[in-house]
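User: My collaborator sent over this chain with a note saying "see what the structure looks like." That's all I know about it. Can you take a look?
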Amino acid sequence: MNHVCCQISEDEGFGSANAVKNDQWLAIADIILPDPELCAGEFLAANGKARYDAKWQEIAWIANSVPGGARKSAKQWRMVIIILDVLAVIQSVK
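Assistant: Without extra context I'll predict from the sequence alone. Here is the result:
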């Protein structure tokens, strides 16, 4: 399956004051793309859940540090990526 983590667009936004900035997308992509577990959404080895949560905490910290960008919790950043993943799948079957 093709995941959106490998297809993040620089110009995606949600039209609100809390819209994700291009630099945030790029920072998230820099973390997710080289990480096979994050890209696949699977952490199967020992301490997988703890590593998964720690990675998303890191993503949130880095994305939230972008000046003028959206501020989200780790859970909210995960949901943004999940929503984009679902939209990419829907778009691919149209």
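A starting point for your reply to your collaborator: Residues 1-17 have pLDDT under 50 and may be disordered.
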